[in-house]
Amino acid sequence: MNYRHGFHAGNHADVLKHVVLLALLEALMRKDAPFFVLDTHAGRGRYLLQGGQAGRTAEAATGILRLAGAKKPPAVIARYLQAVAADNPVDALLVYPGSPLLTAQAMRAQDRLAACELQPEEAAALKDLFARDARVAVHARDGYDAVRALLPPRVDGVRIARGLVLVDPPYEAQDEEYPRVARAVREALERWPQATCAIWYPIKQRRSLQPFFRKLEAIPARSLLLAELLVRPDDSPLRLNGSGMAILNPPWKLDEAIAPALPFLQQKLGETGAATRLEWLKRDVG
Ligand code: SAM
């Protein structure tokens, strides 16, 4: 486990993932009933953009830092920029919030987050971050095992019907990770069929993802939506040319909420040959 998210915080892939995450949370908040979020690969929750790991790679310079001050962004982007700004001083971007912090910021008193992180130092930082937030449980454990241990979710013995499973692994050993992701999501939906599952995936060469998509299509879910942002052509197996979110059982009209964001991100973050995709691989017509 060499991966540290600090080297990549705020890059184009984080921007896409977190814009979609906030759109999903917004949909869950349309009802007063509580929701539960399982973040299987949570990271440390908060990253310094100046110096440290992020400073060494400067990936945020072609991600979040290009969006700061954007004029008239689509609503889902505006919400994302407000959420990032909430962790920073006025007129400066020093810190980037990770998925568990963005989730906790968006949640209400009745909602709950379980955040899993396997790497001990990252997990310790995450525990410190949420030490005073009783809505958040940090688990220093394998996020795939947590699907079995924590789902379906219960709070004080009462089952929570609605919610989200976010699966955002590092894909260090890709041959092993894709089947593990598909197995975990299948199991999550067997245990908690009402849930939405959102999986982040890297795009180097798109065609290599086809077997993964076939596996996701075979999972018994009502619907499957892909949202992708390629910042350059997907012609190199060595570079992160883009990324996507595969969303099983997305909430009603999620596609309409995300649609204006993708061309906006393409224009702001893309190079020559950039592209986007918003496509249903499976759609509930009932
Ligand atoms: N979701 C975070 C965000 O958006 O801010 C970033 C997560 S990062 C891409 C992946 C994280 O998963 C790393 O912090 C890594 O240490 C952790 N990790 C790797 N394998 C894991 C596993 N099996 N279970 C839980 N965490 C794992």
Sequence-ordered SSE layout with sheet pairings:
Blueprint: H1 12-28, E1 35-39, E2 46-48, H2 52-57, H3 64-67, H4 75-85, E3 95-97, H5 99-106, E4 112-116, H6 120-129, E5 136-139, H7 143-150, E6 154-155, E7 158-159, E8 162-167, H8 174-191, E9 196-203, H9 210-217, E10 224-230, E11 242-248, H10 254-258, H11 261-269, E12 275-282
Parallel strand pairs: 1-4, 1-8, 4-5, 8-9
Antiparallel strand pairs: 2-3, 6-7, 9-11, 10-11, 10-12
Helix pairs in contact: 1-4, 1-5, 7-8
This protein binds S-adenosylmethionine (SAM).
Describe this structure in words.
It catalyses: adenosine(2030) in 23S rRNA + S-adenosyl-L-methionine = N(6)-methyladenosine(2030) in 23S rRNA + S-adenosyl-L-homocysteine + H(+). GO terms for molecular function: 23S rRNA (adenine(2030)-N(6))-methyltransferase activity; RNA binding. This is Ribosomal RNA large subunit methyltransferase J. The protein has a single domain, classed as Rossmann fold (3-Layer(aba) Sandwich). The mean pLDDT is 95. It is globular, with a radius of gyration of 18 Å. The termini are far apart. Strand 4, helix 6 and strand 5 form a beta-alpha-beta unit. The chain has an eight-stranded mixed β-sheet, sandwiched between helices. The protein has eleven helices and twelve strands. Helix 7 packs parallel to helix 8. The protein is an alpha/beta fold and 286 residues long. The longest helix has 18 residues. It binds S-adenosylmethionine. The site of S-adenosylmethionine (SAM) has 20 residues, from helix 7. S-adenosylmethionine binds next to helix 7.
